[in-house]
Amino acid sequence: MYFLTEEEKQKLVRGLLPKSRKNQVVEELRGWNWNQPPLEPIYQKSLALYEIAGKYCPTGRDLYLRKVEGVKTKWNQAMIRGVIFHNTLTNLLVTAKKLIYLHGVEGLTRIMADLKEPDFEALESWQKRIDDDFYLQLKEKVELIWEFEYNRLVFRLQDLLAKQPYIGVDSLASLTIPITVEQKLDGSFLGLSQYLSADAFNFSEPMILDLKFGQPRDFHKLTITGYALVMEAIYSFPVSIGAIIYPEFKQGRLAIKKEFQVIDDELRQWFIEERDEKMRMVNEEIDPGVADNCYQSCPYYQECQ
Ligand code: SF4
């Protein structure tokens, strides 16, 4: 899912990259300027990135309840589904990398055989906490995700070996999977948690990738913007493009939609405003009140209603 198709690469190279170079980001909104306004954090207590970027609750009371009142999150089905699918994909990519190193460039048949069977570890870790129907629904989808990504990986391996017959194992691993999954990042320069974890970072094109199993929402752009700012703060190189990946299960098949985004001044400004507002709420313990339009599956529904 994290891999770009040929059409997407063209779109990136001919469309988004030139556009991002033309739309110069204002210097003060680059992450490496974290030590001066407007990026410099005003408050002490740090937040996780999802706490800033998640705007499912219209007033942000979910964050207030969790951070100020100490209310425990009651995981809903969408959250459980998301974490299982994310972890399944991570397991697959990490296992594939290990197998490439283990069996080497001559070991394609072994790699394919060892990787083919889905790993249900992420799903099984939830088995005792979810009902059987839900478990079976998820199992079917985990199989679909695995099969889809397995086929993409095998294609990439075969393609690379055909084009580069003298390739070494390290190059084979990094070109087949040019992605770091669950990239750990220290966001403390920007008032964020020290232990952030981006879904994936594509190092063949410096780009943050975020996977969302759910309906597209405008505020999803805040996640890739936040990670881009953190990457810039840590590594001092520009990260101007991100992509949000929306997998969808349709009639037993998987459809993947990717939304590419230039991380421009407007998005950066939006992220900083959200951060400041939410940090203020938590640090000054301000209850923003119950929203008028709460969603039924909100993990804090009982608490608020
Ligand atoms: S129940 Fe409503 S106000 Fe409370 S956290 Fe959920 S969405 Fe926000």
What would your notes on this structure say?
- The protein is an alpha+beta fold and 305 residues long.
- It has one domain (6-304): Alpha-Beta Complex (Lambda Exonuclease, Chain A), CATH 3.90.320.
- It has eleven helices and five strands; from the N terminus they run H-H-H-H-H-H-H-H-E-E-E-H-E-E-H-H.
- It has helices at 6-22, 49-53, 61-67, 77-103, 108-116, 121-124, 132-163, 169-176, 221-235, 265-283, 301-304, and strands spanning 179-185, 196-202, 207-211, 241-250, 253-262.
- Strands 1-2-3-4-5 form a five-stranded mixed β-sheet, sandwiched between helices.
- Helix 9 links the parallel strand 3 (207-211) and strand 4.
- The model has no long low-confidence stretch (mean pLDDT 94).
- The structure holds iron/sulfur cluster.
- Iron/sulfur cluster (SF4) is lined by residues 57, 59, 61-62, 290-291, 294-295, 298, 300-301, 304.
Tell me the fraction of residues in β-strands, as a range. Answer: 5-15%
Continuous helix count:
11
Written as H for each helix and E for each strand, in order along the chain, the element string is HHHHHHHHEEEHEEHH
Task: Summarize the main sheet.
Answer: 5 strands, mixed
| Regions with little confidence, pLDDT below 50 for 5+ residues | none
Number of strands: 5
The helix/strand class is alpha+beta
Mean pLDDT across every amino acid position? 94
Named once each, the bound ligands are: iron/sulfur cluster
- The Cα radius of gyration reads 21 Å
Named at the architecture level, the CATH assignment is: Alpha-Beta Complex
